[in-house]
């Protein structure tokens, strides 16, 4: 039972950090897209 609990906690931590990483990646991509859009509007 103790092993299961440890594995569950480690898996939960992994998924939570992956979620934060993907959210940050999404924000970065959005900012990049906005910069490209602004550049295209100027030309």
Walk me through this protein's architecture:
Helices cover 95% and strands 0% of the residues. The protein is built from 1 helix and no strands. The longest helix is centred in the middle third of the chain and has 41 residues, at 2-42. It is rod-shaped and about 65 Å long. The model has no long low-confidence stretch (mean pLDDT 83).
Number of strands: 0
Largest sheet: none
Instruction: Return the average pLDDT rounded to an integer.
Output: 83
The SSE string, one letter per element, is: H
Instruction: State Rg.
Output: 19 Å
Assembly status: single chain
Can you tell me the overall shape?
rod-shaped
Q: Would you tell me the structural class of the helices and strands?
A: mainly alpha
Count of helical regions: 1
Ends apart, CA distance between termini: 64 Å
Helix content: over 70%
Approximately how much beta-strand content do the residues carry? under 5%
Question: Uncertain runs with pLDDT below 50, 5 residues or more?
Answer: none
Helix and strand arrangement:
Elements: H1 2-42
Task: Describe this structure in a few short sentences.
The protein is mainly alpha-helical.
Provide key terms for this protein.
single chain; 43 residues; mainly alpha; 0% strand; rod-shaped
């Amino acid at each position: 039972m103790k092993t299961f609990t440890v594995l569950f906690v480690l898996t939960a931590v992994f998924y939570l950090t992956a979620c934060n990483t993907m959210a940050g990646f999404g924000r970065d991509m959005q900012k990049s897209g906005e910069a490209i859009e602004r550049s295209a509007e100027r030309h």
